[in-house]
Amino acid sequence: MLQFLKSLIFGAGKPPQPCLPVGERVYAVGDIHGKLDLFEVLIEAIERDDAASTQANTTVILLGDLVDRGADSAGVVRRARKWQNERDVRILCGNHEEMFLMSFSDRKVLPHFLRHGGKQTLASYGLDKALFVDPKLEEVQAEMERMVPREDRAFMESFEDMICIGDYVFVHAGVDPATGLADQSPEHLRWIREPFLSHAEAFEKVVVHGHSIAEEPQDLGNRIGIDTGAYMSGRLTALVLEGSERRYIETEVGEGGKIAARHRG
Fold first, then answer.
1. CA–CA separation, 110 and 66 (whole Å)
2. How far is CA 216 from the centre of its chain?
3. Fewest Cβ atoms closer than 10 Å to its Cβ: which of 101, 107, 153, 207?
4. From CA 189, how far away is CA 173, in angstroms rounded?
5. How far is CA 68 from CA 31, 34, 89, 119, 125, in A?
6. What are the pLDDT digits (tens) for 125-159?
């Protein structure tokens, strides 16, 4: 129906490019995974870019998976909360936030959390790494309750599942192609790979997502994936959207460990 209405407005020729409403700008940031150093430099680059651009209603969207794998998940959570207090920053719940939060009470989830980067997250909160050598789950949970600030948990509990702005929908992992956007389940939004990744037809909106790592941002028309594997590649990517324009800001670890930002179309 949406495409039919657009064809009536714009004619039967080439369909209009997806766009944001006039006066809106979005910076969407891919999976950070505990890489506070890359995140800090990217924040600075985004702030400079926004200040140098035309005045707009700017929204920053973090696509989820702030935690796990990298060395400083606790620092990333604190920095994201601080940034949210300074400007309009909206944050999606990733599958790693889901596992983290569930692990406080569910001993079936806790081993999966620890196996997939949770050990690094808990170490960043000050838990003794000796706990993880032969972990007794009740002891780990007790230390989690003691060491992880309640405000950090409440902050992660506030994360969203889906954000729609203009012709774009922002999610962590993707969407179920067989289900309308209004009826997507949190499980698909946080965990899906297939059949989403190989779906070639248009979705209701262009899907901007993380979760599935690629060496470069993937702009396939119907979806844009921007998880460039920060914790292993040393590169964190942000997609900038304004009108029908799409461009990127990336921070990357270079020679001598120096982190620099670069802009590209």
1. 18
2. 15
3. 107
4. 5
5. 10, 6, 21, 8, 12
6. 999 999 998 889 999 999 999 999 999 999 999 99
CA–CA gap between residue 235 and residue 168 (Å, rounded): 24
Give the residue among 72, 80, 5 at the shortest CA–CA distance from 33: 72
Distance CA 161, CA 91 (A): 9
pLDDT (0 to 100) of residue 152: 98
Please name the amino acid found at residue 207. Answer: V
Q: Where are the domains of the chain?
A: 23-264
Give residue 158's pLDDT.
Answer: 98
24 touches 57 (CB < 8 A): yes
pTM above 0.70, yes or no: yes
Q: Please state the three-class secondary structure of the chain as a single string.
A: CHHHHHHHHHCCCCCCCCCCCCCEEEEEECCCCCCHHHHHHHHHHHHHHHHHCCCCEEEEEECCCCCCCCCCHHHHHHHHHHHHHHCCEEEECCHHHHHHHHHCCCCCCHHHHHHHHHHHHHHHCCCCHHHHCCCCHHHHHHHHHHHCCHHHHHHHHCCECCEEECCEEECCCCCCCCCCHHHCCHHHHHHCCCCCCCCCCCCCCEEEECCCCCCCCEECCCEEECCCCHHHHCEEEEEEEECCEEEEEEEEECHHHCEEEEEEC
Amino acid at site 231:
Y
Q: Is the pLDDT of residue 3 over 90?
A: no
User: In sequence order, which residues have a C-beta less than 8 Å from that of residue 239 and are 6 or more positions away?
Assistant: 26, 27, 28, 30, 208, 217, 224, 226, 246, 247, 248
Superfamily of domain 23-264 in the CATH hierarchy: Metallo-dependent phosphatases (3.60.21.10)
